Amino acid sequence: KGNKFPHAIGSLPREGFIGLQNYGGKALWFRNVRIKPLTDRKPKYTGKEPITEVLTKAASAANSGLKELTGDSTPLKAGQKIAIYGDSITMQGGYMTIMNKALAASDRTKSLKVKLLKHGLNGGRVPTVLEGKSPWGKLGGTMAELLDKDKADVVVIYLGINDVWHGKKGTNPADFRSGLKKMVTMARGTGAKVVLATPTMIGEKPGGKNSLDKKLDEYAQITRDLAVAEKCVLVDLRKVFTEYIEKNNTKKNAKGEFPRSKILTYDGVHMLPAGNDLIAQYVSRGIVKALRGGK
What we know:
This protein is an alpha/beta fold. The protein has 11 helices and 7 strands.
């Protein structure tokens, strides 16, 4: 309210045309303006589209992951396998169910018989997923054994929450990084393309007010840095979820609760449908990027 701009910066597309503005109708000159292209990819917009159309497309971009995975231009091929390693969020399988339904519903992908292989370990941390067992469950083999058995085309690794959440019984930063790196090396040894996903959340308070936000950010950064170092595709779920709660969890009701319709988890960690949908969209996009060679 009271903002002179009709559209929030955060709602604008991340690519397009650059406009140069003057003030008060006075004559104004620009010189020595240099623009360096960062890619040879053609822009999405011509500069002639109505702003409402541009904003609509930008707003729907976050929901395009499943469309990219199952649409006409999908890079998926018949019989491909995608293995996903994670903790109880993956074990519950909500986001994988959304992905499977999308694959089965699409005329482009339903005949390809693509398999999503679920390797979610209850209470799973990087070391315990490598071992294939935790105090709360088993994967049915070590990660090395499962990788050799699956021979997956893409391996998604989505871990870090329990490594932080379990405190002294969790995983220190050095072991977390070395364990993740070992997973990447092992997966690539089977010929798979690797996608690394940052941990999502432990609590839904905005503004970094959850008790483990700082530590979770540290582990998310380890994952980001490793993705760069190892040239893996990164799915930055931590960034996606943090931006979501900053936008949506701004006001509490009379009971001191955030709007139920905007909540992503039922306990601060495990996903409700909205949370599973976010993961499904962005993991799908990561898989597509991996199959296209990181592009």
